[in-house]
Amino acid sequence: MRARPSPNIWNTPELYELENRAADPHGRITAAMRELGDWSGRTVLDVGCGTGFHLPLWAESAAQVVGVEPHPPLVSLAKRRTKRLGNVTVLTGMAESLPVPDASVDVVHARWAYFFGPGAEPGLRELDRVVRRGGTAFVIDNDPTRSTFGGWFRRGFPEVDPDAVERFWSMHGWQRRPIDMGWSFATREDLESVVRIELPPEAAEEALASHAGTEVDYAVNLWWRGF
After folding, report:
1. Which pairs from 18-23 meet CB under 8 Å and 24+ separation?
2. Could you tell me which residues come within 8 angstroms of residue 122 by beta carbon, excluding any fewer than 6 positions away?
3. Strands 105-111 and 215-216: what pairing?
4. Rounded percentage of the chain residues whose pLDDT exceeds 70
5. What are phi and psi of 138, to 5 degrees?
């Protein structure tokens, strides 16, 4: 079994770092997650944790944090980032075969790691195995139906059918919380670099030509399910 590549973070982790820093400047995703399934004193599993950007955030209040990432170079970066955090463990693994015991985690976070719903069934079955009763799982995904970035995404990836995605999650018992998170970059150069790793070349140049400044309104869906 092989992981589906994520060209943006796999090929240019330094630019993806800029994107992570720019995303959700007001912390709206984190606030919604805390409301729906607080992780204080609990065990958090971050599926597709990449370079470990969010692991320190969970570690501030969680009892234990486990990051799972399929791409070995990113695993190394995540381990380096969290080496001084005693309650964080980073493991190599895939969503379809999580390297954690049955009923061992309380809160699961997956951000742009489940590829828009359909096709994620094996990973969802693993969540049934590893999440304890009373736990909560979260999946953050793009919402192509609204916002400036949503329009860019829709033009760049017309094959993604938002209605099919919504049917998929609803069919599997998940609920949706729409969130306007936004992007706020330090410089125009940073914004341009990130847009070019997130969209196909023609769509990226069209988006940049139509948009001034360093901020972008950006809507996402927070899909969540209780166990």
Report:
1. 18/185, 18/190, 18/193, 18/194, 19/183, 19/194, 19/197, 19/198, 20/53, 20/54, 21/186, 22/183, 22/184, 22/185, 22/186, 22/190, 22/191, 22/194, 23/181, 23/182, 23/183, 23/218
2. 95, 96
3. unpaired
4. 97
5. -125, 135
Looking at 22-26, 100-104, 115-119, 173-177, which range is the least confident one?
A: 115-119
- The DSSP bridge pattern shows strands 105-111 and 131-142 to be parallel
Structure tokens at 34: 């805390």
In the Cβ-directed half-sphere of 4, how many Cα atoms lie within 13 Å?
Answer: 11
Model pLDDT for residues 137-160, shown as the tens digit of each residue: 999 999 999 999 999 999 999 999
Nearest residue to 130 via CA among 227, 30, 2, 33: 227
What's the per-residue H, E or C state across the chain?
CCCCCCHHHHHCHHHHHHHHHHECCCCHHHHHHHHHHCCCCCEEEEECCCCCCCHHHHHCCCCEEEEEECCHHHHHHHHHHCCCCCCEEEEECECCECCCCCCCEEEEEEECCCCCCCCCHHHHHHHHHHEEEEEEEEEEEECCCCCHHHHHHHHHCCCCCHHHHHHHHHHCCCEEEEEECCEECCCHHHHHHHHHHHCCHHHHHHHHHHCCCCEECCEEEEEEEEC
Q: Which residues pair with 69 in a beta bridge?
A: 92
Q: Give the pLDDT confidence score for residue 115 in this predicted structure.
A: 59
